[in-house]
Amino acid sequence: MELSTPLILVNLKTYTESLGERAVKLAKIAAGVSKETGVCIGLVPQFTDIHRVASSTEVPLFAQHIDPVQPGRGTSAILAEAVIEAGAIGTLLNHSERQIRLVDLEASLVRATEVGLKTCICSNNQAVSSAAAALGPDFIAVEPPELIGTGIPVSKTKPEVVTATVETIRKINPKVIPLCGAGISTGEDVAAALQLGTYGVLLASGVTKAKDPEKVLMDMATHAAK
Known about the structure:
It is a single chain. α1 packs parallel to α10 (213-225), α5 (126-135) runs parallel beside α7 (159-172) and α8 runs parallel beside α10 (213-225). The chain is an alpha/beta fold. It has an 8-stranded parallel beta sheet with strand order 2-1-8-7-6-5-4-3. The longest helix has 17 residues, at 21-37. It has 10 helices and 8 strands.
């Protein structure tokens, strides 16, 4: 369950195609492709599926979010310790579909770090990436929201956004690992992302809604391994 780069991180969002036992099936596919290619593939399942997937495979799992709360009071909040107990080793923060204020982002990052969760902050532009890098997460994934779910890859359509983000991250905190997402759906998209200076990709529908997820993941991992 150790993370390595290049990293392919697949966000399952709330797609019915990756719900429940279908999440387990996708995780087993990811595990097989990872073993064959040597490329790390992680999943970001719904909270209710983390334990189910973790009990069935050794694919590294990220939670889709955590809240900046301590154990105790906090009904309905997502507790960092709880996602670890369920089997996650990391968490996304500030996804474009779950954006949070900077003060809460920092507090959530602190909570994640306290309990040993890896962190991936999602960013929609260079300014947010700059602020995120200063917080010191493990990963920053730049994702222009207008391209998410379109099949139009940011790595090809807006390469300047990716390169500018990578440069900004390196200047502010070279320990942070840059990823990119939005519209990534083929192995060529992954290769283009790596050529722009990132160390992997964050994607969702390109895999979860694919007719043949194994074929897509194999294509992506094969290109990433070159």
